[in-house]
Model the fold of this input.
Amino acid sequence: MTVGPINAFDGFPVWYKDENRLRLQLNVDPTDPYSGITPADLPNPTLPVSFPDNYPSEAFYFLAEAEMTTGTGERARLVLALEAAFVSEVPRDGDQIVFGRVRIRIFGLQPNAEYTVTHPYGTDTFIAEPDGEGAGEINFTEDIGGFNGGEFELALNSRVHPFLKWDPNVAPLAPEGYIGDPNVPHPITGSVFVDSFGQPQNIFRIEGPGIGIGSPDRSTTPGLDPDNCIETRLFTVLGKISTVSGVDVTRANYTQTDSARGLLDVFAVSDDTAQTISASGNGIDTTLLQGINGRYFARVAYTGDRPPASVTVTNLSDVPNSIKEAGPVDFITATANYDTNSQTLDVIASSSDLIGAPALSIEDFGVGEIIIPPNGLSTTSLPFAPSQVTIKSTAGGKRVIDVSVTGSPDGPIPVEANAGPDQTVVVNSTVFLNGTNSSGAITSYNWIQLSGPTVALTGGTTATPTFVAPASQATLVFELTVDGEGGPSTDSVSITVLDSTPPPIADAGPDQVVQQGAIVTLAGSATGLATSYQWAQISGVPVQLTNPNTSTATYRFPAQPATLTFQLTVQGPGGISSDTVQVTSVPETLTVTRAEYRTGDAEWRISGTSNVLQAGASISIYIGSSLNGTLLVQVPVDTLGEWGYRVEGSSQLPDQTRAISIQSSSGGTLQNIPLNIRN
Done:
């Protein structure tokens, strides 16, 4: 399967083409009975389709569906689609996505039993999950494509190809220009798979214990037990055959060395069949592009002291013609090199526009924008080499250049001594010196005493020696020397010895009110001499503290209403002190952005937001005007506070209130939300 050029109208590919060279276009015409789109799918049903303000939230290049009834009278549904949609279901330029879908929904099965589903794009085996009401069900959806906007080629990795179409050997024929009628079940052709009987898998078949007993779709295939198998060869099929190849402009660069004329280099893509594509515009003689296999190019002359504001590229083979406009920009030629010895970045750049002489610059990569002088050579002092630089022109050109590197290699990190922070201790106490924060490839440690009453150091050639403080007040200074690459390096630390000192007074800070899921900072302090801090949680939902042995600790508040209590303990030469702080959550804010039920597909579409921005929260959706109704589903809230539920073929129906109610695990509730019920 291949993907076509981008449509200027809506930003989606003009077509997708399968291995049989069948090309299908996106059909968003609500007046077309074969499009699957109705005026009700538009924000304003009374206005024509326009992008993005009056455009459906989903549409199809291809859609094939089959349905059966199980022996228990429940629904079995197969959906095979190449679907166009949007990242957040809201039409917005840049959010266009396309994906291939295989969806299998079967209800009324034996729980925990194995079922095999055969369909045109493969064979899948499932274990029926208990539905909570004594039966089993299969809810399988496989969506493969780009889901971040663009990335249209990722849909080529899905199973949904080659496209299925109505079997032309079975009357009636598909409507002219289409591969089938989505409103009429019909036998199909197109599967490349062959079943165990050597027949093409143009079928929807389910094999499993007792599924055929009492079903109107019991298997008629010789060799299969109809008590344990149901099948159908009737599919509804949607797809409009593309009559246009389309065209897209990948590049349009101009070169101007003469004040009266210049040249345009126009690059375009279309289908890989032979196309007639032209370039035209103000000051341009219409010129045909040359190319093969969907790639086209022309060098076009123009007159005037400046290039045309736009060039029109037209696929003359299309009826109606496909047209793309592109604004020509200059072409930038450039090289970039970083020298490690001089620590300079040299960029040589020039524009194809010698008459307009546009200004060139290097986009900010952390050091600010760098202007390239008119001579085209920029030398910049930098302590590091960027991997790439982006050069832009005031004439619109842009070029990303990999930076080459020359010069000597960097040396290893030199050793650096760190004797630790100054300390205050009491007489006769054991004192610990700490040089573990020294850095580099250290080969030796050596401590000496520089001043104060002489003491005996234990472990003076280690990172952490000890000594016993003298019996009277004094100040002692010690020096640490570390050796290794780039060494030696020295640092000193001062130890003040006191007869006594009052205990520190801990302050855990004021009580806080925070949002659920928020990062909370516990900012403690101490009055007096404190040598250590320690935070501990003493009540509430357990959380994980970060940096609990410092004055400032953090944690994420749980996604539920709660009050948490923490204790700060500080210690110094004079003793220990503690203080507590309480942190309470603010009430949750919930919204519902969509509440919809579609009767044709038995499909629920419900979505909304929460101000609790933490994974782990969940939303319970109830059918009816209060929380006493039937639980429809429980869905998670993502880290952006968004939640949603969308499922087809649901066995749950709205009640007479035509409303839903929701309750969050974070404490919020909304009741009696109107439900939009439509076909």
